[in-house]
Amino acid sequence: MIIEEFESLLDKCCLRLTTEAQNKLFKTSAQFENRVREVLRDLTVNDNSFQIDFNSPAQAFPDIAMGEFGVEVKFTLNDTWRSIANSVLETQRVEGVKFIYVVFGKMGGIPEVRWGEYESSVVHVRTSHVPRFEVEIAQKGMEHRESLFKQMGISYENFRKLEMQEKMKYIRAYAKKIHPDGKLWWIEDSNSEEHTLPLQARLYTKLSDAEKTRLRAEAALLCPNIVKSGRDRNKYDNVVLYLLTYRGVLCHQARDLFSAGSVANPKNDDNGGIYIERALKLLESDMKKAALDLDDSLFEEYWGERVSPENRINRWLEKADEFADGWKPSISLFQGENK
Question: Least crowded by CB within 10 Å, which of 14, 49, 173, 185?
Fold first, then answer.
């Protein structure tokens, strides 16, 4: 099969999936990815050169391998064509795949499924525990954002073959280019693969109250270990790293995010209690919203597993119960949730 034929196949796949999504929304990334596999299998049933693996490893890149062609599946319940993508490392790349495409299912707004050529769809790189790409599918009637690789002056094929140290040279130069006048956070250039991307940071103390609440809710959801004993010195480490690397926000006093009187006891009453428990009670509605809005890849990274949006609060409670000391989050929090 030549490239033009495969792209025609993707046209048919996305048209069928769009029709299905508009009749009944796909609810989870796992459901959508599996359906992409099924449709591609049905469309190539008479082509013996394709054998689609329905049990490929969770971290495989791309998600679906079809001979020399590969499909990376992205999914969101929000009305956006942009998403966090795979790690720059590509340690789980499927051998033999030469041409990679993105099939993106957008369930927010008017549900639609589109495809894009992978190299041209990667528009940004951000860092978490390791640098990750961001992909964006071009919107109809709008000029497509220039790909990351064009901005860095190197093709994707050449970039992916570089050692991590060499990749980071391009990423640092790119970050400096897009923030020429900003204050950049530089992690020392070393052999480490972690946290080596410069960032433009904002101070947490300078944010609006609404943004502070939203970020605290996101961090609390992704990092259930914050319910550990106050004697645990490291329980806020992931919170700080999330705020800095994903949101570009520097928080000097992470402990105050959840245990200060201003967030756990804003009424300044005399009811006492466990401050982290009281702080989380006040964040319940914002954590529910974060559970529905945050990208699947964040939960894969911070929790080590995929969890459907509607099940994330219950899964958080299970995790928090394992960490909590002297109280049980599942008894105290989210009492309206199905457990």
Answer: 49
E strand or H helix that includes residue 78: none
How many CA atoms, within 13 angstroms, populate the side-chain half-sphere of residue 277? Answer: 17
74 forms beta bridges with: 104
Residue 195 pLDDT exceeds 60: no
Q: Helix 209-222 vs helix 296-303: angle between axes, to the nearest 10 degrees?
A: 50
Task: Compute the half-sphere exposure of residue 146: CA atoms within 13 Å on the CB side of its CA.
Answer: 9
The answer to whether the predicted template modeling score (pTM) of the entire model surpasses 0.70 is no
Q: How many residues does the chain have?
A: 339
CB atoms within 10 A of CB 307: 18
Q: Tokens at residue 324, please? A: 């909590």
β 122-127/131-136 pair status: antiparallel
Q: What are 270-302's pLDDT values in tens digits?
A: 555 688 888 899 999 999 999 999 988 889 888
CA distances from 153 to 48, 110, 130, 149, 174 (A): 38, 35, 22, 6, 9
Residue type, 219: A
pLDDT in tens, 61-108: 999 998 899 999 999 998 999 998 888 888 888 888 999 999 999 999
Query: Where do we find the tokens 């609440």?
Result: 213
Q: What share of the chain is helix, strand, coil (3-state, %, to 5)?
A: 45, 15, 40
Distance between CA atoms of residues 334 and 288, nearest Å:
9
Per the listing, tokens 């009453």 go with 269
* Residue 65, φ and ψ in degrees, nearest 5: -105, 130
> How is residue 61 annotated by DSSP?
B
Question: What is the pLDDT of the chain when averaged over all its residues?
Answer: 84
User: Which run of H or E residues covers position 316?
Assistant: helix 312-323
- Give the pLDDT confidence score for residue 111 in this predicted structure: 96
pLDDT in tens, 28-70: 988 999 999 999 999 998 877 777 777 777 778 999 998 899 9
